[in-house]
User: Fold this.
Amino acid sequence: MLLTLDVGNSQIYGGVFDGETLKLKFRKTSKTDVTSDELGVFLRGVLRESGLAPDSIKDAAVCSVVPDLAHPVRNCCLKYFGKEPFLLQPGVKTGLNIKYKNPAEVGADRIANAIAAVHRHPGKNLILIDLGTATTFCAVTGSGNYLGGIILPGLRISMEALATRTAKLPAVEIVRPKELLGRTTADSIQAGLFYGNLAAIRTISAALKTECFDSKDAIVIGTGGFSRLFEGERAFAEIVPDLVLEGLALAFRMNAEQD
Assistant:
């Protein structure tokens, strides 16, 4: 089995693949001071509690946007699973043609999303929207050119900014509001977060279709922890919360075959 870890700024999102089947998903809060032992004990415990033997893990694959966690994650894989993890990083095979001025700047999670989306929709223009700590937009052509992206503050960052940078606005739960116009302060913040992001999704998607794809059709895919919040809004052609894990597993297999 393959252990996959998406190391993000807020959470470590993990999964276990048996072949191409995702058998297990889990999340852990990201802490830059976590030790390899803490992480290893957590991972082995999650596996056991989910009915999977830790020794069944034969390989590990990691994508990370948190440099400080690279060392403990690698040591965790070595000590607790006896495996040198595959790291999705510049120089590995992805099947994409990265058009960034400096390809190394593109977040590994965004590359993993693109790999999975291209695999799901070969030959199609794609707009990928990842609603996590940050909200990111990526444009990928049907020929596999990763054109670039847009980065916005995520829903939680926006909410926390309002709560910490104002005197009277509280922190609120991030949920879909019952109506557009809030009748309490909390309702108003929730409406602003939801409808502000929904407007950004729709407006930016339309602009990307025009600018990147000459107004031709593009499949808009939602992913990330907050993507399900926008179900039923017709903002996405499909929502795939596990896109990053799928892409990471594909990248691992792609590079294993190359070896």
